[in-house]
Amino acid sequence: MKAEIRHNLLVRLRSGEPRFPGIVGFDDTVLPHLERALLAGHDLVLLGERGQGKTRLIRTLATLLDEWTPVVAGCEINDHPYEPVCVRCRRLAGELGDELPVSWLHREDRYGEKLATPDTSVGDLIGDVDPIKVAEGRTLGDPETVHFGLVPRTNRGVFSINELPDLAERIQVALLNVLEERDVQIRGYALRLPLDVLLVASANPEDYTNRGRIITPLKDRFGAEIRTHYPLDLASELDLIRQEAELEDLQAEVPEHLLEVMARFTRLTRESTAVDSRSGVSARFALAGTETIAAGAVRRAALAGEDQPVARVCDLPAVVPTLMGKVEFEVSEEGREQEVLEHLLRRAVAETYRRTLGSADLTGLLDKFDAGEIVESGELVPSAELLRRIGPVPGLAKIMERLDMTGESPGQAAAALEFALEGLFLTRRLSKDTSSAPGDGTATYRT
Predict the structure, then answer these.
(1) What domains, with CATH codes, occur in the chain?
(2) What tens digit of pLDDT does each residue of 287-299 get?
């Protein structure tokens, strides 16, 4: 099976096609190490903080298997018809010879996964005596009374154990033979079951290296240890949000500048000294924030009767209470969690504004405020109404062009202008009063 993966990986390497579809930001760091481990035929451990895509990466390994593979029909452990290893299949092969029934297994069915939890048993992973088979009249010494666990049932495939350090140490011992001798031992049976399986585990670095919760012999048996990481640059963070955020069902448009705000917000939160760096800030932080922004636009469109929901800056404040539970703060910041995130969100908006509109000519917008006008916006103010309150703005097309907004809908125009207003406020060229009433969300911009 490992030779099969090696062959298919080499084919992809030589052809230049994607080796691990859907994996973002690992091309020059993680994937070269993973490819070397697979070519060497090593079982491996992926080390990384939460939300770094470890499970997603492990699941792509199944795409390196042949699309279809022959198995003995009805075999619990996917025996190869030419080399059956379980008692049942060897008996059938002896009785039927070339008439042994064969079925075909798709590669998606050759991947197994188990989240390591404290209540996981050896029976779950390796196997145990099946009392039903014993009750049918078979003796306890009959190997066919064995009920195979998840690992043998993934024979000739890829098996993943997520969060391996959470597995009890006495259960980890049961994996030693799987990794080294490539067989399983079930209770007192004289049963040697050669397994053909690639075992992959994931772990948090703190658990793996500091807490000592993976037994030393098991560490030694993994052939490769590979570190994952969060996206190293803003472009990768944005690519990840575009790929993973589930916005299709909401049917809302989230403009590019707001995606950039969420990407910058995520990165600033990871870098903040107020946040526990050992815990990390998951990629799910940015995805949940983006989906919350889109949901705010959908809610406004439903209440105000808009045809096409378009997210705006006024939808951003709602992400703070939504995301607070996804961040572990330092003890010294207790009670200031919301304040910290609100500050980081403002920084993310300001940085995005400086990159996109920092050098733009906004005199057409500022002139309105020099004449003493005020503009009131809010999360329930429809786009058409916001545009009416602002009035005609010379240079609006240039502003939208700088924000990569190619459409001409009222929602896009309102999103662009409200972002410009917020940027002018954050750069101290306008002032803003925000209503403190619960559920109001009204902001008034003035000079």
Answers:
(1) 2-227 (3.40.50.300), 234-446 (no CATH)
(2) 999 999 999 999 9
